[in-house]
Amino acid sequence: MAELGCEIASHSNAHKDLSKLKKKTLIKDLDTADAAFTDAGVEPPALVRPPYGAVNKNVKSATGRSIVTWTVDTEDWRTPGAEAIAERIMSAK
């Protein structure tokens, strides 16, 4: 993805609700994810997309990165497929 020029964000290492973690644990989780990027020959991302979209003051300040969230949960994990996902997005108000 990096070679294609795509913007990459970290989604954490353990996929826990980052807003429930203490700062030290949050940083350790992201550092572990960063190490995986580095091991793959890619710069650690400057963006974080928190699991579950869970963001609080601690997540915003502790990461030192821009946070990426959303306004519509597509629930693509529940009912995959482009048509179902597009319908959820288009019907959201």
Would you summarize the structure shown here?
Helix content is 35%, strand content 6%. With 93 residues, it is mostly helical. It is globular, with a radius of gyration of 15 Å.
- Our measurement of the CA-to-CA distance between the termini, rounded to an integer number of angstroms, reads 32 Å
The percent range for helix content is 25-40%
**Rg over alpha carbons:** 15 Å
Sheet with the most strands: spatial strand order: 1-2-3
Portion in strands: 5-15%
Written as H for each helix and E for each strand, in order along the chain, the element string is: EHEHEH
Write up this protein.
With 93 residues, this protein is mostly helical. The chain has 3 helices and 3 strands, in the order E-H-E-H-E-H. The relative contact order is 0.17.
Main features:
93 residues, mainly alpha
What topology does this entry show?
Layout: E1 9-10, H1 23-39, E2 47-48, H2 57-62, E3 66-67, H3 82-91
Parallel strand pairs: 1-2, 2-3
